[in-house]
Amino acid sequence: xxxxxxxxxxxxxxxxxxxxxxxxxxxxxxxxxxxxxxxxxxxxxxxxxxxxxxxxxxxxxxxxxxxxxxxxxxxxxxxxxxxxxxxxxxxxxxxxxxxxxxxxxxxxxxxxxxxxxxxxxxxxxxxxxxxxxxxxxxxxxxxxxxxxxxxxxxxxxxxxxxxxxxxxxxxxxxxxxxxxxxxxxxxxxxxxxxxxxxxxxxxxxxxxxxxxxxxxxxxxxxxxxxxxxxxxxxxxxxxxxxxxxxxxxxxxxxxxxxxxxxxxxxxxxxxxxxxxxxxxxxxxxxxxxxxxxxxxxxxxxxxxxxxxx
Length: 309
Hints:
Oligomer: single chain
Strand order of the largest sheet: 1-2-4-3
Number of domains: 1
Order of helices and strands: HEHHEEEHEHHHHHHHEHE
């Protein structure tokens, strides 16, 4: 998995009136991320240890500018994270990550996409969830920082997976989950709401469907059918999510910002499609925060709850 603030640069900016459901820790907190106070387990690693000269030439400036740091303070669910430190692009790698080379190129791709203008998304609702909505049982912060982070990450990955080859990392990750007898929760499974729980598991299915090998994908499908009595419903929901995402073999290293803008616009539309099919029973707005705020001032009265993706 990548970083960019909880796997996809979702940075919550909570407005005062945005309480909904129970406030839960979804496993990654500000305190769990590396700081100068808890960096004793960080060590810099040369990118030359992982890539050939031709691979580094293809990455261009990033091969020279990105600092690779192995960081043992990253939580088990986070394989890596892209961030800036004093203006220097950093690729943090969890020493326990199953495929460090994949994590490094993955984080470099996120840095490059950010440089091309990959949008941060505003996610908001304008009213309290109705009684019939599973969102009523979920903290909006957990919803955005968990499920929507992973979905936006998955959409981003669909544009560079062909180049990065995520199968080895994803396969090992999900084999470990199955050995433990439980898939990592994005926060919805803890609510006690069956529909929310099913979405939590369905997102896992979408991840392994798009980023795992056929063999491990089938093993995860069998695991879900054995473990959950409504496993068939979960499979249908996961497949519906996958159908919203249109993978594209994009060479971002050879793309200018105008070309990238079209790709990013399509990605936002895919997120909109997913929000329509996950059955929230209400409208959840998602859009490029820069575009929204440049076209009109922020109306705090309009946004009861907002997340910045």
